[in-house]
Amino acid sequence: MAENLTGKAKDPSSLPRTLDRIDRKILSALHRNGRLSISELAEQVGLSTSPCWARVKRLESNGTIESYSAIINPAALGLRDLVFVEITLEKHDDKVLERFGQALARIPEVIEASLVTGEYDYLVKVAVADTADYERFLRDRLYRIEGIRHTRSTFSLRTLKRSVSVDPLLLSQAEPR
């Protein structure tokens, strides 16, 4: 479940099903630049500041806007390689999945992890300096987590697109009319 800005878990089924065009414009502008002031945002979406502020607060409180953050280029930290790791677990009961998910969340090199369907159980995105650093990550971090049956790694050659969310305005323009 996603957490909203108050830190409370938000049930995805409680999120609004539809957003009007103004909400989508607000979300799109914040998607491009989360540091916009309310007055800059209001100007971009064609509202006065007070209604714009009220809409942003509503979108935050209902969990549509989960959080704001700076996106740091891993290469600036010396982490030049991205690796996708497919992980298969020995067991699949709720306790094992919960424990494994918590262990992954504590590993700083793990920048994204998803429980998935298919041939493996988790798809994990890892940032490392190089192949030697990846080997260290495997031995010192990942393989110390109990319950792993098998892993398979794929190094990214180049990132073609990187985004933390979907631009709702572009998404609505792509929808069939």
Outline of this structure?
By secondary structure, the protein is of the alpha+beta class. It is 35% helix and 19% strand.
3D architecture notes:
This protein has helices at residues 21-32, 38-45, 49-61, 94-105, 131-140, 168-174, and strands at residues 2-3, 9-10, 81-89, 110-115, 122-128, 148-155. The chain has 177 residues and is of the alpha+beta class. The protein is elongated. The protein has 2 domains: 2-69, Orthogonal Bundle (Arc Repressor Mutant, subunit A), CATH 1.10.10.10; 74-155, Alpha-Beta Plaits (2-Layer Sandwich), CATH 3.30.70.920. Strands 4-5-3-6 form a 4-stranded antiparallel β-sheet.
Order of helices and strands: EEHHHEHEEHEH
Tell me which oligomeric state these chains represent.
single chain
At CATH level 3, the topology of the largest domain is Alpha-Beta Plaits
Strand order of the largest sheet: 4-5-3-6
The largest pleated sheet is described as:
4 strands, antiparallel
What CATH architecture of the largest domain do you see? 2-Layer Sandwich
Uncertain stretches of 5 or more adjacent residues: none
Q: What's the CATH C level of the largest domain?
A: Alpha Beta
Number of domains: 2
Q: Tell me the fraction of residues in β-strands, as a range.
A: 15-25%
State the helical fraction: 25-40%
Number of helical elements:
6
